[in-house]
Amino acid sequence: MAQKFYYQARDLSGRLVKGLVEAETVGEAAGILRSRRLFPVKIKPKRELHFSLSPLFPSKIKPRDMAVLCRQFATLLEAGVPLLPSLKVLERQAENRRLKECLGAVAAEVQKGRSLGSALGDHKGMLPEIFLSMVGAGEASGTLDRALDRLAQYFERQADLAEKIRTATAYPLLVAGVAVITAIATLVFVVPIFEGIFKQMDVPLPLPTRVVMGLSYTLIHYWYLFLLVLGGGGLTLRYLMGTPAGKACWDRLLLRVPLMGELLKKGAVARFASTLSTLLATGVPLLQSLEIAGNVLGLAPGVREVQLMQEGVRRGERLSTLMARGNFFSPLAVSMVAVGEESGRLDGLLAKVGQFFEREVETTINRFSTLIEPFLIIGVGVLVGLIALSIYLPLFSLPGALSAHAPGL
Question: Which of 24, 188, 189, 244 is the residue whose CA sits 20 to 30 A from 319?
Fold first, then answer.
């Protein structure tokens, strides 16, 4: 893999020249310099510093990047480009730095004689399990290009589904954020002005006004306490979410939220069905497919049910029977899986289940967006209205206070 080398060299006149040259080895870099009529004095690899939080917060490559990778990879193989040159082309094309480094390392291992699936297995923490399993199965069966084409379609659907869910939740979060910022600005800049007027006029303050002014005083003088509470709460929640019990409790709470729980559940079922269908169609065994598809569910109650399904499949029970015992999968999904088992077209029926629930997610998102807007408007109005009301309540006592200050008027 080509890298940059820092060099010092002398030209024909003896002048010292410094710069960078790109080559695969030090010897190749020296040859390039000599072809430029430069005589190397020092050549050393350039050390590039990258600030990255990925070691602290490891994450997989995003579905959209994986979709582009699989689509390009499949196109190259279908065009007859050999595996190793294809990997090098993909490395040069990759825009994601981590993916570029991964492809470079994989290409180096393939050049040494390792299989593609084995080389990719060194990067399990970065690459999705479905990608690793399907590439291994496609390479073994000689259908790698078709496996990559299926993967491209799969990742494109997953990216579109995730984008729709993010779009549905972005608007409520934006409105809530604006409401909080507006409330904080009012408490910090507006309330103190009225507080000074009320003190100067000796106006009696009702309870709501005293509460708001106390909150304003605390926010202005002890703002760091709010940051400590928010930071501590966020770290505590992150820690609890990292434990199986905490994750399960959080997921159960989310599933009970009206509309939001329905949206998350349908999205999870769509991911599960699409993943399982894609894996089975490529020839990945059912047990391995269930394990991978269960991991993409993302919701602890569903993951637990899939684990129980794996145990049942090992005992020889039918998948549809095992799905019917739980309450995570809908009767429609169970019925279609049963039909797929009877007809021998389980992968095709699972694909239809995934498509159906993807459409259901779109319908739920539209309904969610329609219903949430009036509630958000009402919520913001109530928040701002309570602060405004607490400020204006003492104004009704202002005439009496003015009379007390000027009895001769």
Answer: 244
Residue in 233, 66, 79 with CA at minimum distance from that of residue 162:
66
| Residues contacting residue 10 through CB under 8 Å, at least 6 positions apart | 16, 17, 38, 39, 41
* Distance (Å, whole) CA 409 – CA 406: 6
- Indicate if 361 and 277 belong to the same structural domain: yes
pLDDT tens across 380-409, in order? 888 888 888 888 888 776 665 555 555 544
74 and 104 inside one domain:
yes
Residue 218 lies in a domain: no
Q: What is the CATH number of the domain that holds 304?
A: 1.20.81.30
Question: Do 141 and 93 lie in a common domain?
Answer: yes
Is residue 282 domain-shared with residue 341, that is, in the same domain? yes
Domain that holds residue 145: 63-156
Instruction: Give yes or no: residues 33 and 103 share one domain.
Output: no
For 113, left (φ over 0), alpha (ψ -120 to 50), or beta? left
State how far the Cα of 227 lies from the Cα of 323, in Å rounded to an integer. Answer: 46
Q: Are 401 and 203 in contact (CB under 8 A)?
A: yes
Nearest to 87 by CA among 148, 22, 4: 148
Spatial distance between the Cα atoms of 1 and 274, rounded to a whole number of angstroms: 36
The 10s digit of each residue's pLDDT in 54-113 is 443 445 688 889 999 999 999 999 999 999 999 999 988 888 888 888 898 898 888 888
- Angle at which helices 346-392 and 331-343 pack, to 10 degrees? 170
Is residue 56 one of the residues assigned to a domain? no
Among residues 296, 54, 259, 301, the alpha carbon closest in space to that of 161 is found at 296
Cα separation of 132 and 116, whole Å?
A: 9
**113 domain residue, yes or no:** yes
Contact 168, 262 (CB under 8 A): no
Q: Nearest 5°: phi and psi at 203? A: -85, 130
pTM value is: 0.67
Higher pLDDT among residues 150 and 56, named by residue: 150
Give Dmax over CA atoms of the chain in angstroms.
103
Cα–Cα nearest to 27, from 9, 12, 5 = 5
* 128 shares a domain with 76: yes
Give the total number of structural domains in the chain. 3
Nearest-Å Rg of the Cα atoms of the chain is 31
Contact between 251 and 301 (Cβ < 8 Å): yes
Give the SS3 label for residue 227: helix
Residue with tokens 């002890």: 222
In which element (H, E) is residue 176 found?
A: helix 144-185
